[in-house]
Q: What sequence folds into this?
């Protein structure tokens, strides 16, 4: 369990994290979402004692990160995968970390294998690609077999196989009862990986909810219907007080009536029905709606 209470961080005049409180529960994957500059990394850094809060506190299993006697075995952290001496090999880096906690060499080899770094483990980290560096960062986070994982954009730079691997890995770790807290900008990936999401915007918590609830709450559910004779359908729906926004090529998107009622009407009127599909909003749509006012660095096209 990660507990954040009234956490605040200012950089000069900028309030990066603004009095936020939340709990990240064990046995689940919690996604940490939010626009660039929302304060995700700063929050994670405060949780692991790398940034000092101006107010509030953060604990992991009831204890601050600094107070943990063997932090690597409590909390695995990936914050900046590039923070590794470039002249060292991946194995030497992991060994050095392991030595601080008397973690045996066998475990170093285990995380090298687990993260797919076997063939490059003895090469200088300075020559690593983005994804290889990211894998090394994940290896380091897993080294102490920790109860809690805090991963800042772990899939950034990973190839599709790597993205899938991270998803399966964090799901498995959560299923073992561990606390997994990870940030990402990949909404479709988060939709498949996270149980819960915390959405941050301008340093504040905009939502903390099961991922499904965020999607369901975001937009009115619509139903896509394809029929022969869209005009009859329009008239039928008008009698129910429902107006159809747009019909193209006999395909209509209908909001305001449950799918079963729409089917009943169409079949009852003897209109040939070819398709009836409830449309589910995506996490991306839900996220966009939620953060529309909290985006600081916006491009013209999405305005
Ligand atoms: N060391 C620092 N000095 C000054 N300002 C900082 C520092 N670290 C972060 N900030 C500012 O704090 C705010 C939050 O930054 P943070 O890195 O936490 O955002 P983020 O949500 O992780 O964004 P991203 O999605 O781009 O990684 C930003 O406005 C950033 O410029
Ligand atoms: Mg960040």
A:
């Amino acid at each position: 369990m990660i507990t954040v209470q009234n956490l605040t961080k200012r950089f000069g005049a900028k309030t990066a994290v603004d009095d936020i409180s939340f709990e990240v529960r064990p046995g689940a994957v919690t996604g940490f979402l939010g626009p660039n500059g929302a304060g995700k990394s700063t929050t994670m850094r405060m949780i692991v004692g790398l940034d000092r809060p101006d107010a509030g506190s953060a604990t992991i299993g009831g204890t601050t990160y600094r107070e943990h006697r063997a932090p690597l075995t409590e909390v695995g952290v990936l914050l900046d995968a590039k923070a590794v001496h470039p002249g060292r090999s991946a194995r030497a880096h992991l060994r050095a970390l392991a030595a601080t906690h008397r973690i045996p060499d066998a475990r170093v080899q285990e995380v090298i294998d687990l993260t797919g770094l076997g063939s490059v483990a003895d090469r200088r980290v300075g020559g690593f690609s983005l994804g290889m560096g990211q894998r090394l960062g994940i290896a380091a986070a897993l080294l102490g077999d920790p109860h809690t994982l805090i991963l800042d954009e772990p899939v950034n730079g990973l190839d599709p196989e790597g993205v899938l691997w991270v998803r399966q890995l964090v799901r498995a770790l959560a299923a073992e009862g561990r606390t997994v807290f990870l940030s990402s900008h990949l909404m479709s990936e988060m939709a498949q990986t996270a149980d819960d999401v915390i959405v941050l915007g301008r340093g504040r918590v905009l939502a903390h909810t099961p991922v499904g609830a965020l999607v369901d709450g975001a937009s009115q559910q619509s139903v896509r219907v394809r029929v022969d004779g869209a005009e009859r359908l329009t008239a039928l729906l008008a009698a129910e007080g429902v107006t159809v926004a747009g019909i193209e090529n006999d395909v209509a998107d209908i909001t305001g009536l449950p799918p079963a009622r729409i089917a009943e009407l169409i079949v009852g009127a003897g209109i040939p029905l070819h398709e009836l599909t409830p449309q589910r909003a995506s996490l991306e749509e839900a996220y966009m709606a939620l953060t529309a006012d909290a985006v600081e660095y916006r491009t013209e096209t999405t305005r």
